[in-house]
Amino acid sequence: MPLPNANKKSPRVYPLLQNTDLENLAYATLQSTGQPIAIEEQNEDELLRLVLVMLARMSVKGEWNGLLTAGGGGGGAKAYNIPNAVLGATGQFKYWNIATMWAGAGGTSVVALNLTAENQYFMPFIAPTTGAPAGCSIYVNSATTSQNLYVSFYESSSAGYPSTLLGYATISTDSTGAVRVTSFTEATTGSLTFTEGTQYYYAINKSGTETPNLFAHSGSEQVAIVPDNVVSSTSNQERFIESVATTTSAPADVSATTDIQGSGSGGNYRVLVWMDF
What we know:
seven-stranded antiparallel sheet, 3 helices, 14 strands
């Protein structure tokens, strides 16, 4: 049975989503499509269409836990409730250090880290606010001559792995100090949008083989994110997930868990990345 007034042209839901298939439809895109729709009787047809697309997306992606959370694939309860506003002369709260935003990472020590390998490194974080980022920053201690760092953002799958690429920032490491960019390459239009309290991954990889020196959080002050493979008196305490193969290419989807692995006992640092909204 067709929707009521199905012969009428959909003014919003179908026109905005018509060129996207269900497998690649990001929850953030669906959310931005529905947010302006007022809950009133005259919008009933559009609301029905929105729910239909949402259920179809969940069926295709296997993300039924979205009925109980935000539908973002691995999301959870609201984890942060810090005001993104000025609370005094020094309380600007403009930049969120997402390297610390997972499972109670503690301490404030940072280290200068030589990024020698050409692997891609994935680190989970909890989105501190809802919306699209306005900027992305890193801190370069020693520069390169002609190289960029890709800072990419991924959905977390229902199993907790990095999966669908949302978008990435391309940041030059050819100068020292704080480097901020305000433009992003999105996987699809509107895909780089975060939902507060939902787990995502940020990842880094180089565009070449030079070795920038970047600031990172000390391994002794980070919580392990991957289980050890043995029970022993010394834990590996892996801090991130890394790609099996080396890559200097622009970021892409993580197509299978066989493409990624634990970092081992040497994976003890998280490169500092700041987001502002």
